Every structure is written in structure tokens, then in C-alpha cells.
């Protein structure tokens, strides 16, 4: 921590040189750059690990999330946003580069895109090259091989990324069981004072992010600060007092806690990382479909909600500090997650699938003067709200039901900040340093205050509307047609099948096709299985009608989408 802060101090000393002493770099905004609504504004980019939209602003009646809801009340909220793969490293590299997993060639954790795919620019790199000080706190890139053991520093960041010291204890035996001993459990409410260092990773990340805000307020330099929170990623380790918000008698099972009868076996994820936790392993649940006991399912769901409220407090402290620093009037705030997490739906836990519960994420943008009225310097936009005492909810400032993708974050944020939007990638883009496979969704912001933009308007030309309807594409690899020990996280060399899933407002269509990892090719002439769910009468995606329906249109659309 001390080294990173020294580096920042030295960097900021250099920033006191005349602005023209710094070349913005090859991707700098030139005369072709447009003025966006947030032109010249800072960016606070908040990304959460494994957070499905169990938030009050998304209609959840049980959760206590007043600070995130307050952010939503000042933001444009997208209620149908989807990740490109329900796994941390592939999803993060995808939205940070604006490229899909088939282009980053990352489906696991074990390759660095600049070496194995192409030297693609990243979103923070682009802001850095356009004169921003870029900083990373917590889990933004997935650490390890997939970000070159450096979180892509120095390409993406002006100073070395900060990782909380308590992070190294995440999988230690720190959960006190009924026997009084310490275990490596899934469900892990803790006394923070008994933790190594007397703290938890997300607490440390909040403290560091607040420190950086206070440093940056003294400069006139624009900044891009990315803050990555760990919870509610497993283990579900959080301060034990948050359990009080969720009495176990108020916790229900998932609405569909069974494995659907017509679910192809290749589509099922056997949640191996859950099984390996001490408390789950003690249950001796059969592989792969054996259900967890109902009471333990409730305890997992209870702890997930408690972890979300713990996260909400961290977000609340961070946003309140943005107010305190006098930066709420000129800082764009983005809040999202890398993917969702199954809480017993379809008899599944964790992520590792193409269902909505694994791929759908919260996504909201706060842009002063655009999603709100102009904000005066020093205004209190985000006063901290205590989830233990706050009563009442907040309604999103604007809400769109349009289907959107995380791969669109890069061009959207560039447009909002007034930078030149990176060009669309050609069909083969491995040699292109700067382009994006997502499309800016900033044009969806232009709706009246408090209104909800529907996901699909009425249309007279059914075929044209079907072809033009916005969709999100997610994908997930499998090693075999039936659940294996490595079905959740197959390494590249073991991938034999790829599940491509197209989500539109009214349906989800998934094809599981033959995949060759040696040349990254999918064979759509060799379909192993398919899924089709119609959302109007099957919102939980329980009844697969693929084998009972003609789906030539869907097949053509997914092929056309992948080509473009």
C-alpha cells in the first residue's frame, strides 16, 4: 500500500507540469471527438463480483440495499443487461476490451489476450491515453495469468493497482463452526475483529478508494477510478451483524429448485466449487444432481443477501466520500457486475451457465446534468444510508428494458465522457488494436424522468422487427455432453462443446455445438443440444421447447449475429 501511494504522489507531482508536457498517446481524442453529456468529467467505475440484480431498485422486496438504490434514483438503469460469459476472467477481459470471448480467446483463467489473441486496447487504457489518471482498486481485472499478473499495468493504469492485503486470506479457515473450530466454509458470517488484520478485503478497498478520491480532489486532473468489490463472491464471508437483516424464517427457496425435465445435460453446471467447501462437503451430496437440504439452501440464500447488504454499505461509504470530496457534480458513476449467480434455480448454484440467473447483471449510469438536473459543486447527492435503520425505497431516475450487453460498456462510457467512440470491429479483428464489438447504448438514455422504456415496441413487420430486435450473446464452454468434475471451469484444451446463447426481450435461444480448442472454431453443423425458452410465459426458463418448435429464424439470427 505504501509503495502504491508513493508512486501516486510522484505521479501527481509530474501532473503539476504544464498539461502540454504530456502526450495523450495514439488513441487520444482528436478533432473527430464529440462532446458527450459528461464531457470533461471524471469516471468512477464500480464492478462487483457475482452480483445478480437482487437489489431494491430492481424490484427485490427482501434485500436491504438503500445506497445502491439511491444511486439508481439518480441514474439510468438497465434492467436487461447481460454478461458475455458467466465466469470472472473471461467476462472482465471482455467488457474491459470491448471484445467477445471468441475474440479475446479467453474462456478460462490461463491466457493473456495481448499474447494469445491480439494487443487490444482496454477501456482504462483508452482513458489514460486521453489524458486521464487511471487507477484500479480491488478486483477489476481478474488477477493472475489472464491480466499478466499485473492487472494489465502499466498499459491500463497510471499507477500500480491496489489489492487489499486481506485478500490472501479469502480461502483460509476463518469461519468458526458450531464445533468452535475454524473451517473453510461456504456460509461464513464472521466477527471482523477476529479476522487476520482485523479487517476484510472490501473494507480495505473502500478505504483505499476514498483515499484516492481525496488525493485527486486536490488536482485538476481528470481521473478514471475503477473499484472492484469481492462480495457476494464465495466464500460468503461478511460481518456477522448483517445476518440480523435477514431472519431465516423470512428466507424462501428458489421458485424452481428442481432440475428441469427437458434441460440438456450439457447445460447443467454441477457447482463443484460449492461442493469443495467444508460445510457443503460434510453434507455428502451426490454428484451431479443431488439437491442440497432445504435448510442449507435457505442458509446460502440468507448469506448471499447479507453479503449484498455488506456490499451496499461499502458502496454507500464510497459514494458519500465522492460527495465529501466535492466531486459528485463532475463524476460519472457506473455500477455493474461481472455476471450473476444461481441461488438454487434449476437445482444449480454458482455461475457457470447461460441462464439469466448467471448472465444477467445490474447496470446503471449516473451522469450529472444528464440523468439528473445539473449538480452544484459540494451538493450532497449520495448521503450515506444505514441499511439497519433506513426505511423506504428509491425509484430509478430512468429505466430501460432494452436488452444490452456488458461488451458495450467501452463505447458507451467513451461517448458519455465526450471521447471519440472507438470504431466497430470488422468481422476479423485480431490485428486491430482499437475497435469494439459492442455498441454504445448512450442513445437509450434519452427518455423522460421516471419513465420506463420498454424492451420491444409494437411493429407491423414481424420479420424485420425480429431481425432488428436488440439481443445479448453469452456463451459457456463444456468438456462433455454430461456433467463432469471440470464442467464448470474447463481449461481451454479440454473444451469440446460451446454453448452460444442469444437473449432477446421475449426469448432465450441456446445452441450447444462442437468446438475445437486447437483453432477456436465452432461447428454449427454439429449441434449437440438446444434450448428455447419463451419469456412471456416462462420467465424462469424452466420449460425447454426446443424440440417442440420450429426455430429456423432463431438459428439464422444467431449465425448472422456471430458473423457481425
UniProtKB/TrEMBL annotation:
Highest rank taxon of the organism: Eukaryota
GO molecular function, one term: iduronate-2-sulfatase activity
Subcellular location: Lysosome
Catalysed transformations (reactions): Hydrolysis of the 2-sulfate groups of the L-iduronate 2-sulfate units of dermatan sulfate, heparan sulfate and heparin
EC numbers, comma separated: 3.1.6.13
Enzyme class label: hydrolase
Pfam families: Sulfatase (PF00884)
Protein family (similarity comment): Belongs to the sulfatase family.
Protein name: Iduronate 2-sulfatase
Organism: Geospiza parvula
Amino acid at each position: 500500500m505504501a509503495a502504491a501511494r508513493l508512486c501516486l504522489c510522484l505521479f501527481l507531482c509530474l501532473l503539476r507540469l504544464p498539461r502540454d508536457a504530456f502526450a495523450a498517446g495514439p488513441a487520444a481524442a482528436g478533432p473527430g471527438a464529440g462532446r458527450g453529456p459528461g464531457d470533461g468529467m471524471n469516471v468512477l467505475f464500480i464492478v462487483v463480483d457475482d452480483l445478480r440484480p437482487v437489489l431494491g431498485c430492481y424490484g427485490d422486496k427482501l434485500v436491504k440495499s438503500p445506497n445502491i438504490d439511491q444511486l439508481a434514483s439518480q441514474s439510468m438503469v438497465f434492467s436487461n443487461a447481460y454478461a458475455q460469459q458467466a465466469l470472472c476472467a473471461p467476462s472482465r477481459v471482455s467488457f474491459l476490451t470491448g471484445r467477445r470471448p471468441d475474440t479475446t480467446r479467453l474462456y478460462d483463467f490461463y491466457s493473456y489476450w495481448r499474447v494469445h489473441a491480439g494487443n487490444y486496447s482496454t477501456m482504462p487504457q483508452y482513458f489514460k491515453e486521453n489524458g486521464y489518471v487511471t487507477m484500479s482498486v480491488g478486483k477489476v481485472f481478474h488477477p493472475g495469468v489472464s491480466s499478466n499478473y499485473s492487472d494489465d499495468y502499466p498499459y491500463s493504469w497510471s499507477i500500480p493497482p491496489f489489492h487489499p492485503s486481506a485478500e490472501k486470506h479469502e480461502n483460509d479457515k476463518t469461519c468458526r463452526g458450531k464445533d468452535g473450530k475454524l473451517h473453510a466454509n461456504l456460509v461464513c458470517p464472521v466477527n471482523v475483529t477476529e479476522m487476520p488484520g482485523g479487517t476484510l478485503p472490501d473494507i480495505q478497498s473502500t478505504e483505499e478508494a476514498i483515499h484516492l478520491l481525496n488525493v485527486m480532489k486536490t488536482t485538476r486532473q481528470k481521473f478514471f477510478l475503477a473499484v472492484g468489490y469481492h462480495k457476494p463472491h464465495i466464500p460468503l464471508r461478511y460481518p456477522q451483524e448483517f445476518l440480523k437483516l435477514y431472519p431465516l424464517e423470512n428466507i424462501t427457496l428458489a421458485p424452481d429448485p428442481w432440475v428441469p425435465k427437458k434441460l440438456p445435460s450439457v447445460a447443467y453446471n454441477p457447482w463443484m466449487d460449492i461442493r469443495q467447501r467444508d460445510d457443503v462437503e460434510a453434507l455428502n451430496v451426490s454428484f451431479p444432481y443431488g439437491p442440497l437440504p432445504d435448510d442449507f439452501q435457505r442458509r446460502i440464500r440468507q448469506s448471499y443477501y447479507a453479503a449484498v447488504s455488506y456490499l451496499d454499505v461499502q458502496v454507500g461509504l464510497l459514494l458519500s466520500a465522492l460527495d465529501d470530496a466535492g466531486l459528485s457534480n463532475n463524476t460519472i458513476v457506473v455500477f455493474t457486475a461481472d455476471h450473476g449467480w444461481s441461488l438454487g434455480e434449476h437445482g444449480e448454484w454458482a455461475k457457470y451457465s447461460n441462464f439469466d440467473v448467471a448472465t444477467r447483471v445490474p447496470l446503471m449510469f449516473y451522469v450529472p446534468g444528464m440523468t439528473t438536473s445539473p449538480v452544484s459543486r459540494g451538493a450532497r447527492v449520495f448521503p450515506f444510508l444505514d441499511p439497519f435503520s433506513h426505511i423506504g425505497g428509491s425509484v430509478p431516475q430512468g429505466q430501460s428494458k432494452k436488452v444490452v450487453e456488458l461488451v458495450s460498456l467501452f463505447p458507451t462510457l467513451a461517448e458519455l465522457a465526450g471521447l471519440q467512440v472507438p470504431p466497430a470491429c470488422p468481422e476479423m479483428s485480431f490485428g486491430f488494436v482499437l475497435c469494439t464489438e459492442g455498441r454504445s447504448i448512450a442513445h437509450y438514455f434519452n427518455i423522460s424522468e421516471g419513465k420506463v422504456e420498454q424492451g420491444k415496441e409494437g411493429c407491423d413487420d414481424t420479420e424485420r422487427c425480429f431481425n432488428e430486435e436488440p439481443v445479448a450473446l453469452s456463451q459457456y464452454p463444456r468438456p462433455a455432453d454430461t456433467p463432469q468434475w471440470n464442467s464448470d471451469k474447463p481449461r481451454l484444451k479440454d473444451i469440446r462443446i460451446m454453448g452460444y446463447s442469444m437473449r432477446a426481450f421475449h426469448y432465450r435461444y441456446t445452441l450447444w455445438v462442437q468446438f475445437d480448442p486447437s483453432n477456436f472454431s465452432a461447428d454449427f453443423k454439429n449441434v449437440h443440444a438446444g434450448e428455447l425458452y419463451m419469456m412471456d410465459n416462462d420467465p424462469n426458463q424452466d420449460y425447454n421447447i426446443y424440440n417442440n418448435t420450429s426455430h429456423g429464424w432463431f438459428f439464422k439470427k444467431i449465425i448472422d449475429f456471430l458473423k457481425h
